[in-house]
């Protein structure tokens, strides 16, 4: 890699733990695909493993380096990471996610990188509370000395500012985008025959990875409430979870299904490549999370023409308003969740109104704007 002064374009190094399927990785991939390559060069560094989307990064002709840092605060691992960063020799390092701040920001300083951007894609209070006092002070010190801080929502910025005791106004909020045409133009694929369901069966979908914070248990419990209220009227709604994760989660959700006696009414469909095509055939899209930094799936539901029921989290309320673009309910309230789902299944005029309003808001969120938002931050730092 040539010296910084010899390069025609600044080199931006993005640091992630892995290029696996996930929200942070999708943001990085979508913005790299739309980056202004006439003005910037890019590289990616993974600190755990490459992941399924590593090939997609390289397909963009962007180099990807793997340098593990386990445990992340080991001085030896940080020195190794610093050597890897020095070989890449970036003009600016963009660290995605708080758990990588200690190894990546420390290594960047050792490597002599002069400009550092830290982005918070989610609420990290659980991460910070799990750190011992020394590590927490270390991460707080590194975050305060970053040249720029980015958040995916104002809610995330507010939480991080308060928890870390940062000055007001340190964060620049850059919303995630959505490739709406991927959903609006999807060729419908009816999964009912595949799942052994009768034609016309109402589908209630929850697209979510298997994680504790996604509260899929609440979705299953809400399904049980709605099914009981339906009282055998045909065709009754079927609730589907599209997503995957550790086998232990899968078994846990199967136990909930057996416990609540909704085996025929709740389907764990696993990971699917044809989500946009399936969404276009469903009746309701649901988000049950108790923690989201942005909540991209809500916009995806709207783009596919689905009315939305979502938990009333701060970032979600930045995307959609209750009873205008979606129905918002408190977290961990499957009874309220069931009420709203049933309301949308029975009141199609309400459902259509929410979708129409919601689709008008989609123009506020696009990946081009996200990529330009990043570049504005880079420009400001590189011009100093």
Q: Report the principal-axis shape.
A: elongated
Strand content: 15-25%
Portion of residues within helices: 40-55%
| Strand arrangement across the biggest beta sheet | 3-2-1-4-5-6-7
Structural class: alpha/beta
Distance between the termini: 23 Å
CATH superfamily descriptor of the largest domain: Glycogen Phosphorylase B
Q: With helices defined by DSSP (H or I, 4 residues minimum), what is the helix count?
A: 16
Return Rg in Å.
22 Å
Largest sheet report: 7 strands, parallel
Structure summarized in a few sentences:
By secondary structure, this protein is α/β, with parallel strands linked by helices. Helix content is 43%, strand content 15%. The mean pLDDT is 95.
Task: Describe the secondary structure blueprint for this structure.
Blueprint: E1 11-16, H1 23-33, E2 41-46, H2 54-59, E3 64-66, H3 75-88, E4 92-96, H4 101-111, E5 116-120, H5 125-130, H6 133-144, E6 148-151, H7 154-164, E7 171-173, H8 181-184, E8 203-207, H9 216-230, E9 238-242, H10 247-259, E10 266-270, H11 275-279, E11 284-287, H12 296-303, E12 308-311, H13 314-319, E13 327-329, H14 334-346, H15 348-361, H16 367-382
Parallel strand pairs: 1-2, 1-4, 2-3, 4-5, 5-6, 6-7, 8-9, 8-11, 9-10, 11-12, 12-13
Helix pairs in contact: 1-16, 3-4, 4-6, 9-14
């Amino acid at each position: 890699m040539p010296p910084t002064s010899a390069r025609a374009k600044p080199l931006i190094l993005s640091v992630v733990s892995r290029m696996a399927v996930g929200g942070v990785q999708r943001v990085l991939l979508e913005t790299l695909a739309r980056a202004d390559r006439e003005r910037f060069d890019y590289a990616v560094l993974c600190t755990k493993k490459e992941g399924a989307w590593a090939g997609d990064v390289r397909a963009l002709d962007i180099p990807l380096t793997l340098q593990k840092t386990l445990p992340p605060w080991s001085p030896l691992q940080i020195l190794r990471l610093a050597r890897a960063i020095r070989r890449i020799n970036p003009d600016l390092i963009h660290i995605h996610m708080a758990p990588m701040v200690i190894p990546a920001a420390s290594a960047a300083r050792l490597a002599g990188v002069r400009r550092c951007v830290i982005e918070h894609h989610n609420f990290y209070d659980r991460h910070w509370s799990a750190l011992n006092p020394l590590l927490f002070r270390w991460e707080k010190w590194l975050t305060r000395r970053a040249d720029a801080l980015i958040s995916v929502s104002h809610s995330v910025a507010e939480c991080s500012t308060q928890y870390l005791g940062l000055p007001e106004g340190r964060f620049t909020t850059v919303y995630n985008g959505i490739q709406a045409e991927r959903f609006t133009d999807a060729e419908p694929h009816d999964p009912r025959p595949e799942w052994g369901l009768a034609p016309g069966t109402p589908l209630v979908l929850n697209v979510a990875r298997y994680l504790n914070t996604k509260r899929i248990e609440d979705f299953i419990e809400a399904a049980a409430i709605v099914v009981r209220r339906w009282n055998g009227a045909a065709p009754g709604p079927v609730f589907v979870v599209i997503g995957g994760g550790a086998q232990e989660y899968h078994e846990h959700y199967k136990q909930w299904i057996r416990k609540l006696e909704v085996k025929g009414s709740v389907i764990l469909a696993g990971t699917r490549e044809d989500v946009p095509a399936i969404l276009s055939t469903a009746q309701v899209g649901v988000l049950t999370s108790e923690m989201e930094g942005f909540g991209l799936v809500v916009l995806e539901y709207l783009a596919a023409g689905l009315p939305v029921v979502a938990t009333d989290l701060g970032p979600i309320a930045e995307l959609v308003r209750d009873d205008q673009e979606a129905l918002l309910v408190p977290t961990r309230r499957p009874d309220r969740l069931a009420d709203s789902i049933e309301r949308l299944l029975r009141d199609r005029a309400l459902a259509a109104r929410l979708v129409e309003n919601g689709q008008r808001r989609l123009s506020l969120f696009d990946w081009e704007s996200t990529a330009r938002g990043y570049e504005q931050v880079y420009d400001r730092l590189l011009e100093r």
